[in-house]
Each structure stands twice: as structure tokens, then as C-alpha cells.
Amino acid sequence: MPSGSRRRPPPPHRRGAMPPASSSTLSVSAPAPPKPLRLRRPLIAAAALAALLLLAAAYATWRVDSPPAALLARPAAPARFYSFDLVREYPHDPDAFTQGLLYGGNDTLFESTGLYHRSSVRKVELPTGKVLDHHQMDGDMFGEGLTLLGDRLFQVTWLKNNGFIYDRHNFTKRKSFTHKMRDGWGLATDGKVLFGSDGSSKLYQMDPKSFKVMKMVTVKYQDNEVPNINELEYIDGEVWANVWQTDCIARVSPEDGQVLSWIFLHELRSEGICRHCVACSVPT
């Protein structure tokens, strides 16, 4: 990592590959309440969990119950807190270090994978996990966030200010671009602008043609900045942001950066212990 980078050296679960799991199917049991949902085996990678859940979250039925114990001990905050319902599970390549994931229509996914010498862009068959198309990136590139605007896939890379644009139908048709973010972590779009993150508390809005930063807001919860904003999705007027090294997704207003509500996902891990985000540590 360059000495000037503000991103701290990552722990193994974020920037190092995990050993292949014994099975390639993401599997979660659904015991009767009040027992939490639990995984029957380790996930493919912590980053893959974040990306998969952001995709599934748009279709899940949300309920406002079972927040972490740290939240139960103090008065309710204005923001709302959500858990999740598991609705479906799919097989997935356990060796894919997923960084960006989105639905491509017709039971397909587009996926950006990370790690040096292993980064790629893929088209995946959702029901089977089969890789239908694949572009292997250069060994010095670490693939990160991915989003689809029209027929173009936009991808950013870690520790660099450049990214790539791919034809969704033919990955060999691609070109590069340069952005003004400090680093490349997450990408999303509302169909007009690109939303980007660089691992800080900043949420960027960029022109998809010039890549000029049109607007930048600071993501905050109760006047406290939320750092480590990672992968992004745009859902019904909100930007949903995975917070790196926590089990939390922040639902963010793109207008002013305020966190409107939180989604807690710690019950997906076998031990069910919450890795806290700023929502659990703000004094009241």
C-alpha cells in the first residue's frame, strides 16, 4: 500500500482471500422466533456477504425488531432500525472475492471480484452460479464497486483513481476513465448520476460522461460522521451503504447525507454478535 494512502492496512477478512468453503451454496436456516437466523457454514468472504445482502435487501420484507443489545440499553433514536427476512438462497463461487454485485435481468448477475492477480468482471447465472462471461483484469488491479447504467458497466479499483467501462454484452469492448475520488470503493446509479464512495464518510455524485464531481455530502448519523462507507446500491431514492468492518447497512439520503435508518445483519453470522457501527456508539 502506498505510504500516502489514508486507508489503513486491511485485516485478512477484507483484503485477503478466505479458504474455500466446503460447499458453494450460501445457506441460512430459518428457525422459529425468537431465535436468530444463522449460517450453517462460513460465507465465501465478508465482502461477498455485504454485496449479496445489498442485492437481497431490496426484495426482503423488513421488520423493526431485534436491534443489537447496545441499542436496547438506551433511548430510541429518531432513525429506525431494521432486521431482515431471508427470502431465497443461491449457489455462488466460493473463490470469488466479491466487491460489486448487481442484478442484470433474466436471472443473471454482474459481479466485480477483487484481490491482486485475481480481479475480474463476470456475468453469472443466478440460479446455478455458473460464470457465463468473464474478463480477467491485469494483475496490478484490485476490482471494487460495479454498477450498470444503460448498456455500460462502470467499475472502480482500489487505491487508484481510475476505473473501467465495459459493454454489458461484450466485456472485450471496454475503456478506462479517471475520477476525482480519493480511492475506489463503491458505485451505484439512479440512472442519471454515479454515486461513489472511497472508504471515508463522503458520498460523491459524479457525471457519468465527464466524471466531474457534481455534489459531495458527508454521511452522518445524529451529527456523527459515518466512516468506511463501502459498497453502494440505489434503492427508491436512497443510497444503501455497507459500512466496512460492521454488520450494518446505512440507508442514506443522497440530498444531505443523513442516515435515515439502519439495517442490522449480525444474525446472519453463526455467533450472532453485532460488530457495532456508529449507530450503537452515539451518546444520548
Automatic annotation (TrEMBL):
Organism: Urochloa decumbens
PANTHER family in the cross-refs: GLUTAMINYL-PEPTIDE CYCLOTRANSFERASE
SUPFAM superfamilies, sorted: YVTN repeat-like/Quinoprotein amine dehydrogenase
A matching Pfam family: Glu_cyclase_2
UniProt-annotated stretches for the region Disordered: 1-32
Composition bias type Basic residues, residue spans: 1-16
Superkingdom assignment: Eukaryota
Lineage of origin: Eukaryota, Viridiplantae, Streptophyta, Embryophyta, Tracheophyta
Name of the protein this chain belongs to: Glutaminyl-peptide cyclotransferase
InterPro entries assigned to the protein according to its UniProt record, in alphabetical order: QCT (IPR007788), Quino_amine_DH_bsu (IPR011044)
